Structures are given as structure tokens and as C-alpha cells.
Amino acid sequence: MRRQRQAKIVATLGPASSTPEMIEKLFLAGVDVFRINMSHSDHANLKARYEDIRAIEAKYARPIAIMVDLQGPKLRIGTFTSDSVTIKAGDSFRLDMDETPGDTSRVYLPHPEIFAAVKPGEHLLLNDGRVRLEVTAADGKVIDTRVVFGGILSARKGVNLPDTIIPLTPLTEKDLADLDYALTLDIDWVALSFVQQPSDIEEARAIIGGKAGIMVKVEKPSALNFLDDIVTATDAIMVARGDLGVELPLEAVPGWQKRMVRACRRAGKPVVVATQMLESMVNEPVPTRAEVSDVATALFEGADAIMLSAESAAGKWPEKAVQTMDKIAQSIERDPLYRGIISNARTDPNPTSADAIANAARTVAETLNVAAIVCYTGSGSTGLRVARERPFLPIIALTPSISTGRRLAVCWGLHCVHTEDAKDLDDMVFRAVSIAYNEKFADAGDRIVITAGVPLRTPGKTNMLRVARVAAPE
Question: What DSSP designation does 41 have?
Fold first, then answer.
């Protein structure tokens, strides 16, 4: 099951992709990570999809990652006396704690934390940003605003606050229950919504306790003020362009996408670019040219993974959407400009022996034109370091931990193989050579570069680089 590309594909499961047969088709079409959105899933559905994916994993003997995306807090207004109301630019509009149905002048806002945090001059966005309000006065009980952009409002539309840090934990009671159940299933990644600052990650980290990786969805403008600290505190980043595009000016999103990808590449943390990548394929069998260019941009930036949302979850063409994304990735990675662009975005390795070995492995491998780099990785850190170098040849990550292999499935360039740990140095070389040959990355007579830590089975101690020649099995 070797992929013919380095970037990975994340696909969201939903009504259009809820059967074992379709999930298997998506895997064969190119999916490396399956996302289950808990905003639209209960525990029974999560368990069923988990079992389906693990059965496919066992059938094809390739680690597959499962990402559980927590819903996070949902801020919504109350109801109106009629089905909908229209408010106009320049009008005054009040949000208060009175549960009485609203009208064109006011509405109930059932979130005391907003009243405690919002200040004059800040903005509230209603109905996915279609209505914009500027706060003129706030006393902790009512919020008076001026309508900047008017429009139609109906009951329980969402509220976004791009200028305000709201004193809310990212984990609601529903999220805590979902997370507790997901961890009993040994899922691989938890996508954390509504992160505003680095401290928001601490509660999730304490609960998860290393059982899964944390992927912060950057969807709040306030998080951008702490981007480097959030990258340090998390295990991976998702560029959640949907919600981010509601709270930020749309023209600012592409620049922030580039900054997030580069920050993650510097840190050696996986980064997933998400939302509306092939949106027209929800209904159409082919994407627009602009969507293909959007996917290509993320690939040229060196993103670890690109993600499908509604396209695979609820669209008419889930399998074709994955196939299309796979074709785009293969084409971009063969483009004459690709290597130069990726190389120019490389940064110097950190001053550690493990980073120096990873950097040397790329240099030696490309100089000798070897067939592959084979890295032994128990915790996953060595795999991440080698992938950070973005070498232009295959990387085989050998790990005795199936959970590590699954978690690394989101990482650029890593072909993960679950195998027994090497007994000694001779066994290490034999195992690396055999797997490279059997997985069809190398032929007899080819050379491979091997990285590992000595003494063996010492996590985070990569300190050895070796060149070995592949021999045909007897």
C-alpha cells in the first residue's frame, strides 16, 4: 500500500461515507487519516467507524490514523418573535439576558461569559459573519451595538467574536464525554476547537495524558497572537480556514495559512490545511480550477496533509474527491518547481545530535541517490525530525509501537511500518534492508540510509547513521 506522493490526505467521514465498503474505497483511493467530527456523531457511530477502520488496517497491514474532532463551545443567539428579522446598517441593536423572543431591536444572548468579556469598539459577527455589529456600550448585563453590516437573522444563529478573548475552556461537557469515550478506543489524534491561547491546551493535555496526539484547530484570530507558543504547546496544527475566514478578513487568511505552515515546518510539527479545498465536489464530479490551485498552494508550501470535509462526508462523489486530491498531489510533487520551493523553505536543524543526524541523513541520501531513508522510531520523534527535512526520496518509519505508526500517518513523507524492535545492530540493518525490499522501495543492489539510536530502544536518542546495500532475499 505504498502511496505515490509525500503529502497525506485526511478525509472526513459522514453520511456519504459511513459504510465499511465506502471507507475501504476511500482508503484505497488515498486516505491516510480518517476524521470523525463529533459535532455530527454520537458514541455508537464513533465506535462503529473505529471498528471499520481498524478492520481495514488489519486487512492491508498499514497503520491508519483516526482523528476525533471535538465540537467545542457553540455560541448562539436566542429566538425571535417571527421566523426571521431583518436588521439594517446604522441601526442600534441590543443583546441582553432576557429570554423573551427578540425583534429588530434586540435578542437574547445566553452566554454570560460574553457579557463579562466584550468591550466597546469590539465586534460581534452573527450568522457566519453575514451580520456585523460594533459594540458601543457594555456593562456586563447588556451589550449595545451599532449594525455595521445588516442582514437577515433567525433563531439560534452562531456568534463569533474576532476581537475578544472569551473566558471559556475549549472543552464543554459534551467534549469531555466525547473525549473520555474516544480515549477508550485508542484513537490517534484529538482535534481541539476554540483554542484562543496556549493555556487552553493544558486541560486537554492533562486528560489525554499522551494517549493521543493533540491537533489544535487554529480558527480564532486571538490564537494567531500566540502562534509560536501554540505550535510549541501542541503536537500538530490544523489551519481551520472555515471559522478563521469568518472572523478574519478573507484576504488575510492566505497569508496566515503560509505563516502557520512555515511555523510548523520550523518546529517539526505536522500541519493540516483544511476547509473547502474541493468544495464544488460536494455536488460536481470535478473541481474548479481555483480549487485545484488552492490544493496546489498548500502542497507547494510543504503542508503535511490536505483535508476533505463535506466533500467526503456528505458529497455525491467522496471516492472521486479523494482520487482527485491524490492526483493533484502527485502532479505537484513532480512539478519542476516543487523541489526548489520546498528546499528554499527549509530551516537549519536544531543544535541536537538527533536533529543533526536527521539533517545528515537527508544530505547523504540525496548525495548518494539512495533508494530510501529508513528510520527507527519508537516515540515518533525521529520520524518527525527526518520528515522535517523534507528529503526528496521515500522515508520508511519502522516502529515497534502501532500507536506511533498510526499517529505518524499524518506526517509528510512517512511510510510507516509496524515491526518488532531490532535485537542488535546486525538485526537492525537486516530488518531495514528486508523491509525496504519487501515494501518495494528498493531493489537488490540499491543503497539505503538508516538512522537509529544506540543503544537500541532508547527513545529520543537518535545518534547513528549508516549506509547499507540491499541484497535480494535468499
Answer: -
Q: Would you list the DSSP string of 392-421?
A: SS-EEEEES-HHHHHHGGGSTTEEEEE-PP
Which residue ranges form the domains of the chain, and what is each CATH number? 8-72+171-334 (3.20.20.60), 84-160 (2.40.33.10), 353-469 (3.40.1380.20)
Do the beta carbons of residue 162 and residue 248 sit within 8 Å? yes
Residue type, 3: R
Dihedral sign (CA 33, 365, 447, 356): negative
Mean pLDDT of 371-398: 96
Q: What is the pTM of this model?
A: 0.95
Catalytic residue among 2, 76, 141, 469, which? Answer: 76
State yes or no: is 130 an active-site residue: no
Determine which one of 217, 220, 241, 447 is catalytic.
Answer: 217
What is d(CA 226, CA 447) in angstroms, rounded to the nearest whole number? Answer: 44
CB-side exposure of 292: number of CA atoms within 13 Å? Answer: 12
pLDDT digits (tens, 9 = 90+) for 18-56: 999 999 999 999 999 999 999 999 999 999 999 999 999
Q: Is residue 174 flagged as an active site residue?
A: no
Residues near 21 by beta carbon (within 8 Å), at least 6 away in sequence:
none
pLDDT the model gives residue 457: 65
From the CA atom positions of the chain, what is the Rg in Å? 24
415-454 per-position pLDDT tens digit: 999 999 888 999 999 999 999 999 999 999 999 999 998 7
- pLDDT tens, residue by residue, 280-300: 999 999 999 999 999 999 999
User: Average pLDDT of 254-265?
Assistant: 97
Catalytic site includes residue 385: no
Closest by CA to 347, choosing from 411, 251, 261, 412, is: 261
What letter would DSSP give residue 76?
Answer: B
Asked if residue 407 has pLDDT above 70, the reply is yes
Give the whole-angstrom CA distance, residue 15 versus residue 190: 21
Parallel/antiparallel/unpaired status of strands 33-37 and 123-126 = unpaired
Q: Which three cell numbers stand for residue 359?
A: 539533517
Q: Which of 275, 324, 399, 451 is catalytic?
A: 275
Spatial contact of 7 and 299, defined as CB atoms under 8 Å apart: yes
CA of residue 392 relative to chain centroid, distance: 23
Q: Is 76 a catalytic residue?
A: yes
Q: What is the DSSP string of 266-279?
A: HHT--EEEESSTTG
Indicate which residue of 5, 8, 12, 35 is catalytic.
35
